[in-house]
Amino acid sequence: MAGEQIISMKNVCKGYKMGTEKLNVLKDINFEVRKGEFTAILGPSGSGKSTLMNIIGCMDTLDSGSYDLSGIPIHDAKEKELVKIRNHKIGFIFQNYHLIPTYTVMQNIIMPLLMRGMDRKSAERECEEVMDMLGLSQRVSHKPSELSGGQRQRVAIARALCSKPSLLLADEPTGALDQSSGTEVLKLFTKLHDMGNTIVMITHDLNVAKWAERTVRIVDGEIFEEEKAV
Amino acid sequence: MRISEILNLVRLNLIQNKFKVLLTSIGIVVGAATIVCVIAIGRGGKADVAEQFRNLNAGALDISYEQAQTSSGFPFGGGSSGGSSKGGSGERPSFSGGNMPDFSQMSAMPSFSGNGSSGKDGKPSGDRSGGFSFPGFGSMFGGSSDTKNSEKITLSTEDMDDITTNVPGLSDATISYTTKQDIYGGNIEETESYTVAGTLSNYAEMSNLTMMFGDYISDSDNENKNKVCVLGYSAAKKIFGSAEDAYDSLVYIDDRPYTVGGVLAEQGTVEAGISADDAIFIPYSTGIKYLTGSDISPTITVIAEDVDNIDAVTENVKTALAVAHPEADFTISDAGSKMEAANKSNRTLTLMLTAMASIVFIIGGIGIMNVLFVSVKERTEEIGILKALGGSRRDILLEFMMEACCMSLIGGVIGVLVSIAVSPVISNFGLRLEMSASGALIALAFSLVTGTVFGFYPAWKASKLVPVEALSAE
Fold first, then answer.
1. pTM for this structure?
2. What are the ABC transporter domain coordinates in residue numbering (chain A) (predicted)?
3. Of A40, B2, B376, B464, which has the fewest beta carbons less than 10 angstroms from its beta carbon?
4. Domains: count for chain A
5. Which chain A residues are Cβ-neighbours of B403 within 8 angstroms?
6. Beta-carbon separation of B390 and A86 below 8 A
7. Are B474 and B393 in contact (CB under 8 A)?
8. Which residues contact residue B155 at a Cβ distance below 8 angstroms, ignoring those fewer than 6 apart?
9. What are the DSSP calls for A99-117, one per residue?
10. What pLDDT was estimated at residue A137?
11. For residue A60, which residues of chain B lie inside 8 Å, CB to CB?
12. Which of A98, A161, A172 is the mutation pick for testing B, counting most B CBs within 10 A?
């Protein structure tokens, strides 16, 4: 199943200044993800997993080391290129869904395609299949506030999938959901993985991480490969 | 992102926050309404000035003479003009008339006059310019020491001819005077006092007077001293009931019948010159023969061919008149300057009101800026989401800028509508408003500029937000 490298991180360091001291959050990270992998990054709070996710998602810069995403050297990329990479290569799924409350389900889902310069009609056509697959076709004109947590996360997944990204990047995707909705979302992730999507999921929950085919642990800014979950 | 899609997002956001948009744009509403009204008032003022001065030509110069009056002191010190009214000098007897002067009115004492005796009906019949005075006495006993304008001078057609002959660059010249006369005829039962103007045939054209019925006074009327008259519109209505009835009727001026040869169209109120609507116009020489004698203070009006040449013409007129009247200082008023002064005061008023409107706009703009800052703060997460999904700085900047512009434009449109609604109310306060499409467009442009200027900074701040920080904002 494993193919070309999607993520290739070498000796990545990241720190933040806290007053006069520098706090090293990521220490010499070496991490790779191949096309079609479903990887979980498991770690407790404060371990640096969110910082790692932000760097993988091109929303934050690294202090040293190198990071290639689909062969593109992100460590050298300018802001304009990063914007384009975020739009074309990455599909974000956030813990708190991060849907725009004033927009309808459809408007939220097509947003990444509109950002690309696509017109609304074409964008809506492009998203029809994904919405059917996620059972959102009857909800297109609803506002996020009119949906359940599980449904909101499905909208967020649909938004991430519509742009046909190289990488689905999920940050605690079940963190705000009850167990049944969480399971539903994780089943969906498995389905998406089976369809060939590359998924990186950040979680602190071992039970959630078990759904991934590969788990890496992050502890105090250092990354450790775990044996494949059985 | 396509501009049309950004506009669609703006539309969605504005619809979601209708009430906030309305409250935010109140400053712009007031500013736009003020701008429209200010422009309307400015145009109204300009139209008012144009109307009030329509009987004046911009190149016209009025030349008149005012005899100096001794301000105090001995009554023999200089003397005063006899006045042009019928009763004027007749009621104030000259020394040669044999009556005692009224010492309680020292400042208006008559001069010694060689021909100052009262003529028929007590009217002065002599030429006062032939009289003499004692200017030295005036200064000795506390009167004016200035020898200028101490003698009585009556401008005449000869003076007018001197001017037209010696002053280059004139297109026309005329001479006229006014006097108060008792009138009866038509529907009026008792005599009424009216302004009677003695004019030449070219007066109507030079004063932009238009006829409703008949013709204006002709050269032959003047040469033959015909007893014909032209009535102003209001005078005709008051005396005969209508302009039509007045035409070809008889009106009695100082008990002599005059045929109404024409009636003027309504001219409206005027700021300078003779108020034509209430006046009666007669031939210049007829008036001198039957009404005033030479006891008049005429005004010579000349028109400069080139308005820009007014100063030179004024100097030349003074020089031309100085030959015949070396001691006289004539009053020369330039119609263009009067119009310019009136327009200037109107412009000042407009400028002041515009400054006021600009302040309102600035306050409105600051209001918009504040609301946008709050909006950026409130929507930080939304900005973070858009950035995470691949929204560029340009997209975010444009979205917030367009929101500010739309809010301002909505305010501008409401402001224009408000100005249309309140214009009748303002008119009731006596201000003339000339509403115009250009005023509305300027107000909308001002609104748009305000939105753009004051919306830029919050929009720029929004576009500069770091996606990670924006997403984690509570």
1. 0.62
2. 7-230
3. B464
4. 1
5. none
6. yes
7. no
8. B63, B64, B65, B175, B297, B298, B299, B300
9. --TTS-HHHHHHHHHHHTT
10. 86
11. 468
12. A98
